[in-house]
């Protein structure tokens, strides 16, 4: 389980393409500290398993399902990525509950900079729109953000200077794909209400 508070910007250092998967080698000084085989690390919001670890680099396998559902398939050597280790039990929940299970991808449609923050408009797949509400939480490339406006096929977020400086949303431009994970609590509520016929 993650919180969507990115620890560092990492970098893809190697990509090995396999028949139905690929293997990434990534550099990240903070997230590799104490890393072991089998540990989880979120890469642009996707929970990946550490296969190997050497110094400040680690490798992770990505299966076809993950490549199809996320934007990891477009990453190349030199791509910058958001990295986060799982939250420890009893630690502060700085963002919101993030599983690292991407629901789909969106496209950055527009960026509107201002003096102290920037508004970013992102496309929203139709099947995810019902889970996104104004002032609710959403994960974009592994970053816990608050929704400013929620439309039928888009949403906007407001980025503070820290987010712009320390995450991929500071460098991605219009047209770039981002990974989206909606608030898991909304999905559980929908399922429970459906099982009860929509009644209380």
Automatic annotation (TrEMBL):
Annotated pathway: Cofactor biosynthesis; riboflavin biosynthesis; riboflavin from 2-hydroxy-3-oxobutyl phosphate and 5-amino-6-(D-ribitylamino)uracil: step 2/2
Keywords, comma-separated and alphabetical: Repeat, Riboflavin biosynthesis, Transferase
Lineage: Bacteria, Bacillati, Actinomycetota, Actinomycetes, Kitasatosporales
Catalytic activity: 2 6,7-dimethyl-8-(1-D-ribityl)lumazine + H(+) = 5-amino-6-(D-ribitylamino)uracil + riboflavin
Listed NCBIfam families: PRK09289.1 (NF006767), PRK13020.1 (NF009566), ribE (TIGR00187)
Function: Catalyzes the dismutation of two molecules of 6,7-dimethyl-8-ribityllumazine, resulting in the formation of riboflavin and 5-amino-6-(D-ribitylamino)uracil.
Annotated InterPro entries: ATP_synth_asu-like_sf, Lumazine-bd, Lumazine-bd_dom, Riboflavin_synthase-like_b-brl
Domain Lumazine-binding span(s) in chain numbering: 1-96, 97-193
EC class of the enzyme, as a word: transferase
Listed name of the protein: Riboflavin synthase
Repeat positions for Lumazine-binding: 1-96, 97-193
Gene Ontology MF terms in the entry: riboflavin synthase activity
Enzyme Commission number(s) from the entry: 2.5.1.9
């Amino acid at each position: 389980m993650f919180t969507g508070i990115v620890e560092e910007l990492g970098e893809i250092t190697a990509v090995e393409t396999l028949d139905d998967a690929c293997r990434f080698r990534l550099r990240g000084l903070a997230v590799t500290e104490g890393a072991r085989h089998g540990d989880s690390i979120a890469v642009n919001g996707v929970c990946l398993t550490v296969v190997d670890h050497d110094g400040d680099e680690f490798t992770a396998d990505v299966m076809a399902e993950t490549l199809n559902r996320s934007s990891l398939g477009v990453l190349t050597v030199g791509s910058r990525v958001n990295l986060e280790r799982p939250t420890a039990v009893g630690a502060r929940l700085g963002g919101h509950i993030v599983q690292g299970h991407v629901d789909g991808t969106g496209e950055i449609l527009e960026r509107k900079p201002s003096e102290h923050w920037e508004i970013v408009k992102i496309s929203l797949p139709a099947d995810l729109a019902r889970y996104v509400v104004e002032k609710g939480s959403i994960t974009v490339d592994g970053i816990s953000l608050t929704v400013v406006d929620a439309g039928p096929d888009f949403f906007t977020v407001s980025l503070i200077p820290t987010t712009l400086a320390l995450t991929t949303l500071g460098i991605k431009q219009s047209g770039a794909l981002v990974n989206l994970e909606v608030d898991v609590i909304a999905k559980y509520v929908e399922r429970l209400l459906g099982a009860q016929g929509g009644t209380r």
